[in-house]
């Protein structure tokens, strides 16, 4: 992962999800490429020409939304842009954490760097410097319909550029003007098109998705080795992961999950052959490649879609400086991200669903052949009894959160904007589902490590490593203790990525 000295060059075309995460979480710096700066200047010259020629162009010389037919006099163009920001800053609720705000800023900079939006270079550079110097606008989480983009959240970002609103700087919540001054920056006055260029885009939902994807990929790989530990603890049958079986149903994710399970179990003396203890395992063991693999394929699809969106122009109208054309369209519509967020939430929730079922098999003596709730003194001690309750509660919460937001729409702007994506709602729910899934996997990780200690024989190459990692942080449960402490430590281990190899 990048650190604070890393500089990521933005040209509008090559920003990766890992780079977004480095900017968001590790303080990586941003710099525009010379080519991007030139394209921004060319796009701006087209706006200036249209203003001089008094052309009627949406958002430049007209009002917005339902007011697109209202032509604005030249003398009021500056006020039009500031009014847009002030009036649209209508988000509510708890603010986004700094990592999400930084991702939003980076993504908006990258979209504007493509040079189709008509912003001035100095205005864009202020946003770059705010990100680099740690001026993080306070952006409330609620209030975006996901079309026309993320208007309300992005307006709160731009307020600070005007010396308005609020921002966090060096751990303190300040007014926008105070935060800029403390960072050695000055507010700007918006020119024609700039307010619209800054707020008309999908960057809030895309920021949430990019960070969630980074975390989801860690959960995917962690789930694989944790599941392999459970297979060993229950003396499962790895023949179900045989490559020739999975070649007959050639889904790439399924094949990869089966391959990784076998790699983690390589050398294990804890597994069994068909018929040795049982003819076949329950679905939560036997079907790990099919379930995990489907999530892998979903991750791959969403990763591709979000990478595309990270490098897209998502405002309106779009200016083509080569031809002088200005085209009004709907690139701000968040439907591609809304569907991706809902799809990924469902896919990641399935990692938690099957994990909780494996935990139940570990703690239930009728299914495991192990001491009830993995304690040697059942009755006096409850052991892992209530950890499974917690997992069941969290997976049920995920099921509620996985109701798709993208199937909803509600008309706005006097029915001019009569279909919206709800993509930001979908992405916000996704963030919670990913966090919940880490908790459920942490519970299985703890239970699998405990269950392994009731058996004997060499562990597999991957499972031995995972077992050693958890035992460095969390000792075996020999008597009842505050399990939430262990659960939190196991969750942090998973989220740190130490189980990804």
UniProtKB/TrEMBL annotation:
Keyword terms: Cytoplasm, Histidine metabolism, Lyase
InterPro entries in alphabetical order: Aromatic_Lyase, Fumarase/histidase_N, HutH, L-Aspartase-like, Phe/His_NH3-lyase_AS
Family membership: Belongs to the PAL/histidase family.
Superkingdom, natural source: Bacteria
Lineage, broadest ranks: Bacteria, Bacillati, Bacillota, Bacilli, Bacillales
Cellular location(s): Cytoplasm
Residues passing through the membrane, by range: none
Enzyme class label: lyase
UniProt protein name: Histidine ammonia-lyase
Chain positions found as 2,3-didehydroalanine (Ser): 148
GO biological process: L-histidine catabolic process
UniProt entry tagged with the keyword Magnesium: no
SUPFAM superfamilies xrefs: L-aspartase-like
GO MF entry, a single one: histidine ammonia-lyase activity
A cellular component annotation (GO) from this entry: cytoplasm
